[in-house]
């Protein structure tokens, strides 16, 4: 019975660890609004433009260091930053890979929200706590508020908060 108990304890600890450090999947409505804020979700022409001293590319305005970090969790990503950025699919996988690395509950201390994803996308790994990214989040939030699905989720959360006080 002792080894069985040890196995159960190990399994519970392992599953807890996986849940804590599991990669975050950016919801489609959040991802879409980040894309809207960055480029009106259109492929820029040219694909890359100078932004704060370095090139930002594609519909998500991805910089080279962002893409390099995203590859650690997002796979090959077409093997080339500019080529990836010129593809909606690859750009989206890059954002998901970046968030899988930096927007995890184990790293930020809570289950990531769209606000966390947006602010990390805009301000880097610690953007979720940088006051300079609040304006960016407000733009993403305005886009989300135009989505009835997101607005109804927010209203439900507000209702739940007021009834649980």
TrEMBL record:
GO terms for biological process: defense response to bacterium; killing of cells of another organism. Residues 1-24 form the signal peptide. Disulfide bonds join 30-114, 35-41, 48-57, 84-90. Keywords: Antibiotic, Antimicrobial, Bacteriolytic enzyme, Disulfide bond, Glycosidase, Hydrolase, Signal. Its EC number is 3.2.1.17. GO terms for molecular function: lysozyme activity. This is lysozyme. The active site is at residues 38, 51. Pfam families: Destabilase (PF05497). It is an enzyme of class 3 (hydrolase). It catalyses: Hydrolysis of (1->4)-beta-linkages between N-acetylmuramic acid and N-acetyl-D-glucosamine residues in a peptidoglycan and between N-acetyl-D-glucosamine residues in chitodextrins.
